[in-house]
C-alpha cells in the first residue's frame, strides 16, 4: 500500500514558478512509476507528466506535449518524494494537481491515463493569476 501527500501549491502570478512535492509512504516506492495529473473546474483529469521506472535506479520522463519545456518531473528516492517543477506559469495552468503512482513493470510504455494508476494523493491547488 502506498500513500501520497502533495504539497507546494498556491497562488502565483503568470510567468512565475512553483515546485510541487509528493511525499510517499510504503515499501519499495523506488520501484513505482509516478505521475502528475491536473484537473481544472468543469474539466476532466489531464495528464501532465510521468516518470517510468526502468529497473534499478533508472527512470524515464514523459510529458504532455503542451507542457514540454515548462514542467519538469523528478524524484528523490532517498526522500521518497516526487517533484513537479513548473516554470513560466500561465493562467490556464490553474487546476488541482494530483500525484499518482503504480507499481512499475519495467515495460517500455508510458502510462498517461488516470485509470492506469492505483494510488492517488488528495491534490494541491495551483492558481495562476494573470
Please describe the topology of this protein.
Blueprint: E1 3-7, E2 10-13, E3 18-25, E4 32-39, E5 46-53, E6 59-63, E7 71-76, E8 81-86, E9 95-103, E10 119-120, E11 124-129
Parallel strand pairs: 2-11
Antiparallel strand pairs: 1-3, 3-8, 4-5, 4-9, 5-6, 7-8, 9-10, 9-11
Protein architecture, described:
By secondary structure, the protein is mostly beta strands. It is built from no helices and eleven strands. The chain has strands spanning 3-7, 10-13, 18-25, 32-39, 46-53, 59-63, 71-76, 81-86, 95-103, 119-120, 124-129. The strands form two sheets. Strands 2, 4, 5, 6, 9, 10 and 11 form a seven-stranded mixed sheet that branches. A four-stranded antiparallel sheet has the order 1-3-8-7, with no helix packed on it. Strand 5 (46-53) and strand 6 form a beta hairpin. The chain is globular.
Short précis:
The chain has 130 residues and is an all-beta fold. It has no helices and eleven strands.
Radius of gyration: 14 Å
Q: Tell me how many strands there are.
A: 11
- Helix count? 0
Order of helices and strands: EEEEEEEEEEE
- Estimate the mean pLDDT confidence: 96
Structural class: mainly beta
Shape: globular
Strand content: over 45%
- Estimate the helix proportion, in percent: under 10%
Uncertain residue segments: none
Tell me the major beta sheet.
Answer: 7 strands, mixed
- First and last CA, distance: 40 Å
Amino acid at each position: 500500500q502506498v500513500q501520497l501527500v502533495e504539497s507546494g501549491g498556491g497562488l502565483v502570478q503568470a510567468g512565475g514558478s512553483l515546485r510541487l512535492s509528493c511525499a510517499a509512504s510504503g515499501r519499495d516506492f523506488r520501484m513505482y512509476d509516478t505521475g502528475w495529473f491536473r484537473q481544472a473546474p468543469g474539466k476532466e483529469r489531464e495528464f501532465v507528466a510521468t516518470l517510468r521506472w526502468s529497473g534499478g535506479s533508472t527512470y524515464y520522463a514523459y510529458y504532455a506535449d503542451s507542457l514540454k519545456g515548462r514542467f519538469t518531473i523528478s524524484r528523490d528516492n532517498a526522500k521518497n518524494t516526487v517533484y513537479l517543477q513548473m516554470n513560466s506559469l500561465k493562467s490556464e495552468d490553474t487546476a488541482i494537481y494530483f500525484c499518482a503512482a503504480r507499481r512499475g513493470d519495467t515495460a517500455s510504455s508510458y502510462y498517461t491515463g488516470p485509470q492506469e494508476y492505483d494510488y492517488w494523493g488528495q491534490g494541491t491547488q495551483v492558481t495562476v493569476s494573470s
